Amino acid sequence: MNSDQFETELTPRRIVEFLDRYIVGQDKAKKSVAIALRNRVRRRRLPREIAREIAPKNILMAGPTGVGKTEIARRLSDLVNAPFVKVEATKFTEVGYVGRDVESIIRDLAETAVAMVKSRMIEEVQVSAAERAEQRLVDALLPGSERRRSMPDIMKIFGGEKEEAPKPAPEEERARESTRRKLLALLEEGKLDDREVEIDVVESQSVGIPILGGSGMDSMGINIGDMLGGLLPKRSRRRRVKVSEARRILQAEEAEKLVDMDAVVREALEKAAEEGIVFIDEIDKVASRGGGGTGPDVSREGVQRDLLPIVEGSPVPTKYGTLNTDHILFIAAGAFSSVKPSDLVPELQGRFPIRVELQPLSREDLARILVEPENSLLTQYSALLGVEGVDLEFQDDAVAEIALLAERMNAEMENIGARRLHTMIEQLLEEVSFEAPESGARKYPISAEFVRERLEPLISDGDIRRYLL
User: Fold this and answer.
1) pLDDT in tens, 175-187
2) What is the CATH topology of the domain spanning 3-120+271-357?
């Protein structure tokens, strides 16, 4: 499917259907992010003059932990294959002391975009890289005539002259070419995979010097290898490996050579600027409680004001070049249990015009989370133990009982949403997992009675459950 066809089919309804495969409930949040994503497609089809003026509608999601806020943003980026970074706002609460510079968010996004584009371009050149790797393998398996080593003439080096290797005789050249063709045919058929061969593997010449301190310098560095370019000689190491392993190593080397890094960086910066998604979690942790003027709240408000420029749009220097944040989509999320979205500074509130409230998970939601999503929690555990020959059979009443107990624990203790299910399943299947390697292949039914037997004692003991559940 080409990009135009993909964008045509990327309707809000299709986006919501995709999110439904992984996330239970939260229909309002799914619709909001689906519309925000579709607006990007619409903007790209507008004339440049008006498209430049249309800013993304950033989203602020409020809701308790473990209800799907992060998962919605992550799955969204997977759907459109967009550069995506997730950061916690609490990392920036002590900027100027021990915290990170907020612009490091955008530099992380640039790194992600470069890695994505480079990975795609490497995949595109695999056929050519494989052909080149095979030619190098044939050279390694059929070494050329040994050259007589001598001290090079220093005047020839500075004069740009190169020593020419002696030309082989015509008969020797024909015989050699015939042998090369035979070896190449054997390589393609995989008949030489178990033979050992010596190859020269190029070692990385990357030498980084981190720059410490100074605004805007966080996580940046000087790479001596990049600065000096081809001036530093390439270091290689002789390795003796099997042909199958040598093919993989040489193909990776050749693919790297075939990729134009200048083109990678240009496309990556454009992709990050136009399609990048930044998810800022725990935004409520930097909200001022009641507007106090001293102490930690000063730091929190400072973080919010530091976030303002990149959220509203500004050029940020990265080691790949300047990345403009005008059209990056920002999604912020927080529990907002002790503060409200209105406790954020007014300027930052205005940069997140779309507000979505995610609902706490009910017992029915928890039961659906166990079985409905693609590769659901119970599917994962069944697959893990299936490797040992244990066939787990979760009965419907067992699923309902787990959801009931998880709801009870969330109500009586800290409400951690669907994350409670992971803890409870681990406790539930602890003995089964431990005995699985020795128990042999067999079916293992999980009933409501089994769930109560394993979990009820833990839930009833207030001291134990604080540590285990």
Assistant:
1) 667 777 777 777 7
2) Rossmann fold (3.40.50)
